[in-house]
Amino acid sequence: MSKRILVIDDEESLRDLACTCLEDLGGWETISAPSGHEGLLQAQDDALDVILLDVSMPDMDGFQFYKQIKANPKTHEIPIILLTAKVLPDDYKRFAQLQIAGVINKPFNPILICEQIAQMLDWRE
């Protein structure tokens, strides 16, 4: 069965690249959102297997999104993988305190992103 992934990133070209890779290389279905607010609406409306979430976004950053998604009984069990360009040592401590499935650094390798996600979530072929 195909996995459904919500990709949330304010950078359209990166969001499109991630979706294309996940669909073409992973065979997964993707839904995309350009902001945390739109991502929250998508997560309410769609059954999702994982959310690939940009940390640095205007209006609502990844941490604000995370708090809201985890506070909602309908969406709190959806695994979240952070997609970020800026990871400082203190960030890893903060990530460890959150229940996140993993972190993928930008720029990500388009060839390896499906494998990275599958490993983080223990998805077996």
TrEMBL record:
Modified residues (4-aspartylphosphate): D54
Keywords: Phosphoprotein
Source organism superkingdom: Bacteria
Boundaries of every Response regulatory domain copy: 4-121
GO biological process: phosphorelay signal transduction system
A Pfam family recorded for this sequence: Response_reg
Keyword Iron-sulfur: no
UniProt-recorded name of the protein: Chemotaxis protein CheY
Native species: Nostoc cycadae WK-1
